[in-house]
Fold RNA polymerase sigma factor.
Amino acid sequence: MASSEQPSSPAPEAARQGSSGDHSAIGAVEAVWRIESARIVGALTRYTGDFALAEDVAQTALSEALVSWPRDGVPREPAGWLMSVARRRAIDDFRRRANRDEKYAMLAHDAAREQATGDKDPLWDPDRVEDDRLALIMIACHPVLSKQARVALTLRVVAGLGSEQLARAFLVPVPTIQARITRAKKTLGAARVPFELPTGDERTQRISSVLNVLYLIFTEGSTASVGSDWMRADLAAEAIRLTRSLVRLAPDEAEAYGLLALMELTAARFPARTGSDGEPVLLEDQDRARWDRSAIRRGRAALGRATAARSGLGPYGLQAAIAEQHAIARSVDDTDWERIVLLYEALGRIAASPVVELNRAVAVSMAHGPQAALPMVDELAVSDVLAGSYLLPSVRGELLSRLGRTDEARSEWRLAAGLCGNERERDVLLRKANQS
């Protein structure tokens, strides 16, 4: 069993670096892990009462699947197979711990009875999935953890992101993110955080952190930070599903509706965001007839619920309001860019960040021309607050191109391509540089 002292290998990396056998079986392992990892870890946490142990034995089961499935074939119930193996490894761990003899006896008795009677695994109860996953998120967002640790841990155990993806997302080395996750699990263990949904004020306090984590999961799905796919629609869909669950859990939380609105309105464009070969299609080139009108209606309805709270839109609500302006416009030229500039100004006052300022500059360029926006971008460049991010040179290249400063634009796009971790987006940047 992997020790919590050692960073365990996340599924995507393990799959790519591991067996050279049956690729379809490896693909099945990846797919099942991507979809079911959170449910498995959640059920194991409930079973063992130990979050770190649950994550370790789940990773062990994953490793065994990468060896077994290509050799023996994909089992009829892949998630159940992973769950059973993980549970056996948990029992093995309990057996080695003398101070857990009593619990081991109870678990072993249950396992023997299930084997004798042929009963289905009581841990794999579809009716408890929802609570398990939300409880897992709440644990990962516990106040004993730093904000960075909460996000990393949730993305790891709930969304199934690998260490490499997390490292790119946070612009830190892989060992740093692995150490961060290990420390987070040890902290949760030391604090004896229970596996349960918090109630009352404690639940309210954790909502903001949970919203932030769900937003980051959606962002990774909307524009993947690494890999050959521009989007990870499955990840974005999972973030939306979790946010809908959270809205049901906290129906009076306006910002939860704001985040749901932002996700729905953004996801509405997904059908038109990629071409036939998976290449990115930029906003100005998208066929708006392909936008998901049902998602737009759901997003606007959620934004209406956030607005109806009459407490003022928060960061997510304001971003949703910006997304709404795109959703209702018939074209880029038809878009109310003046209103988007105002919304970004409001967003900057309550949630200032270099990325918000960069987006405001883009909106200003669309409303008033590139010359008005270039000083804003240059100021960000001088401040070095977005060093290492491809976003700033990408936008700067666009503005310089519109101003006819072709050589400088080409240089910026090449710089952006060198910083971009997503292959699809990198191709777009290089194509702009080569065709300018």
Notes: Confidence is low (pLDDT under 50) at residues 1-21.
